[in-house]
Design goal:
By secondary structure, the chain is α+β, with helices and mostly antiparallel strands. The protein is 24% helix and 27% strand. The protein has one domain: 60s Ribosomal Protein L30, Chain: A (2-Layer Sandwich). It contains two helices and six strands, in the order E-E-E-H-E-H-E-E. Pfam families: Ribonuc_L-PSP.
């Protein structure tokens, strides 16, 4: 593996991700932000944050596979959520859990969550981008 995930002493232990990714690979993979479109470009889960988060993570998995990568190769995830408030965290986690069950893996890379006013189209509630490192 080109990525080692860790929680250094002195930083809080976050159960859903690691604080640091150490990359030793030589190829970087940058994914465009993935929204809740299926393969035909149809919006999935209109108005449903859980369904959209799930679809975004499934799309990230598909994009990674297209580059010969998996979530084990991800060094950084960033999620942009429209109208973010802390009470939406359980919905976000439910969507990630549903995607993880389908993918057979749990994304654990360092992650950043950013609340935004809007995304590219009004129906999109979330967008997820990733950076991976391959040997």
């Amino acid at each position: 593996m080109a990525i080692t995930l860790t929680n250094p002493a002195g930083l809080p232990e976050i159960p859903v991700y690691r604080q640091v990714a150490i990359a030793s690979g030589t190829r970087l993979v940058f994914l465009a932000g993935q929204v809740a479109w299926d393969a035909e470009g149809t919006n999935v889960g209109e108005g449903d944050l859980v369904a959209q988060v799930e679809q975004c993570y499934l799309n990230v998995g598909t994009a990674l596979a297209g580059a010969g990568a998996t979530f084990d190769d991800v060094a950084k995830l960033t999620a942009y959520v429209v109208g973010w408030t802390p009470d939406k965290m359980p919905l976000l986690m439910d969507g990630i859990a549903r995607a993880s069950a389908k993918l057979g893996t749990t994304p654990m890379a360092p992650a950043t969550l950013i609340g935004v006013a809007a995304l590219d189209v009004p129906e999109h509630l979330v967008e997820v981008e990733a950076v991976a490192v391959l040997d």
